[in-house]
């Protein structure tokens, strides 16, 4: 019996160095019925021509050429032409295990789930981190959402990323309006939140089937603040508003805890970047929410950080610098 079609959407921009490894890893999938959609988001290098070569060589590869609109817009463009019953996303500087979609689809259908998620191998400049147990866990949509929110702030946990997951198309179609808001960054946060909420079941496959290329987080570039971080704060706020409207109190409190941790992180990043105005903005914002922060469940270590900050932001910065 023919297996359902899976559409894999790959937004592409200025990744000539990585594109072959990425696309070839999708072409080599053991799952037999894939539609690969390469979205050239106005890339200034040779990526557009490389995409066309793949389309000419493989009949199950589609190419969309568009003017640059960012990651969200590229994903939307891919969704517009996708015909699969299931949808996957791959970032163009990453690559995937040959059995990724075969494994995810198998467990998805076996457990009658709407979303399947795998563990992620994190590839840094100086090391590779792969943590897997092989276990398969099935949760309700709201349970999975709570699990995702609970994991935030505990180191690098790409739980909100769309690229480690396989989605039933019907879940995506339930979302109102544009799935990925154009021009916004970190749009995964609200998208994944909504997708999990709308799902009846979510299957977590604890195998490292996705290989994520990750630059060194301890470098100055990664530690400092950028304009993109403002979008991350916005997505955290949008997610809180979404959960509040649904009256999911436990989930809302977890999202609020993540938001408060983010404010403290951004205060430090602005300090590292020497951005005095932004530093003052986050300093005032933390002080504004201080009474609520100390009542929120954020863990005793993080709460201690906030207490030190409330006494003296300068002392907090010195302690944080020494810990790094």
From TrEMBL:
InterPro entries: Glyco_trans_2-like, Nucleotide-diphossugar_trans
Domain called Glycosyltransferase 2-like: residue spans: 7-129
UniProt-recorded Gene Ontology molecular function terms: glycosyltransferase activity
Superkingdom in the source lineage: Bacteria
UniProt keyword list: Glycosyltransferase, Transferase
Record-stated family: Belongs to the glycosyltransferase 2 family.
Name of the protein in question: Glycosyl transferase family 2
Source organism (scientific name): Aureibacillus halotolerans
